[in-house]
Amino acid sequence: MNGKILFIIIGLLAYGIHYCSLFLPIISGYGTKYICSSIFIAGHDEGRQRAEDLAFFPLNYATFIVNHTDLSVTGSVFGFIRRKAIYRNGLGATLVNDFTEEQIRTQPFKVPTPPNVNQDDLPWPMGNKISDGVYPVNVNRALVQEAVDSLFIEKDPTKLIRTRAAIVVYDGALIAERYGTGYSRSTKFLGWSMTKSIISALVGILVKGNKLNIDAPAPVPEWNNTNDPRHSITIKHLLQQNSGLDFVEDYYSYSDVTRMLFSTGDMAAFAASHALKHKPGTYCYYTSANTNILSRIIRHTVGEQDYHSFPYRALFHKLGMNNMTMEVDASGTFVGSSYSWGTARDWARFGLLYMNKGFYNNEQILSEEWVKQSATLGGSNIYGEYGYQFWLNTGKENDSSTRRFPDVPTDMFFASGFDGQAVFVIPSKKLVVVRLGLTKTPDGEYGANNFLKTIIDAIS
């Protein structure tokens, strides 16, 4: 064999081995964590999850062993890089990273049980009882249903949109709802990055209680030194994705975000360890790092005794979101960037809180000003589409002609997650719209603009 060719082959093999050593743990961790959460939190069928959610290379060649005795999943790809995730009731599934399994399993925590009520006996939105009263006279019922039904039609077998749930709430009333085959209103769905918007709400609750000042330097231990350029990062910078941290958000490679989510035990500490790339407040770059740092700030603010119960006591149970589960990393901090599960109705209730300017069930849970600022464009946002951990429809640099949803009002803001999860809030139309599914088309598009436009057109 030609020496040059042999050298090239050896080089390619070395590169392949190096790449696999970096990326396979990420891939294996993703699949293991996902299967563990899906089975033990949501009760999903393992076979269906593998056939749909994990049906891409190389996860379609992965092996997962589910242990119903110790509530764990062990996974590997091609038999290499075994990863383990363990489930704890109230905390969800956690990948074993940096901490031993025993350390993780023995962590103390307190998560309150849901209110002792039968929600099927309570009227919406605190319960599931939907009024049989007169349908809103100014809403075309057939047109709304047509819009919802359109999300469940697969027009291209090569680009499946796989909508699993859709809900429309108008003026506080649930007026349309549909689920895909095998799913129902009791099914829990992973919100992915919609969890970021939950973290924003929790920060808003602490701000309302004068526990946090978002304009002050963020209380991050790694940045305490006043000579550290990161010391000038504020909570507002983190909320608006203007922290300036040198963190790469690329889910399709071995990057900062994939390392953080699937190979790191203390995600907030990993995120906070990154240096600055831009002066805080001058450049917007969407990263999960900012949100996980916020999650740990919440932990330090409310204290260890209350932290794991705080989202439930202060938010979820007040809204009737009684099926929610937020998951923690190996250090015990909520993975605020990515991991929360709830029913479609739970997600609709969350949107309704913002639709009602923070007022819900006779309580001002968030201040009106907080809701307003959550839907206001950040000053240095190059996308022109981000507020306080919510996406906006203002268009780039506040130019409405460049907005992502051209046929939807500019006052719309929304929580958005991987694979097409969304909670849309459109104040001018009194609408909250939820869509959940598994859209893995190249652009992640499932016809959201036309879907929302049709609903809006149905209101006179």
From TrEMBL:
Q: Beta-lactamase-related domain spans which residues?
A: 164-442
The superkingdom of the source organism is Eukaryota
The record's annotation in Pfam families points to: Beta-lactamase
Please give the name of this protein. Beta-lactamase-related domain-containing protein
Q: Give the organism, scientific name.
A: Adineta ricciae
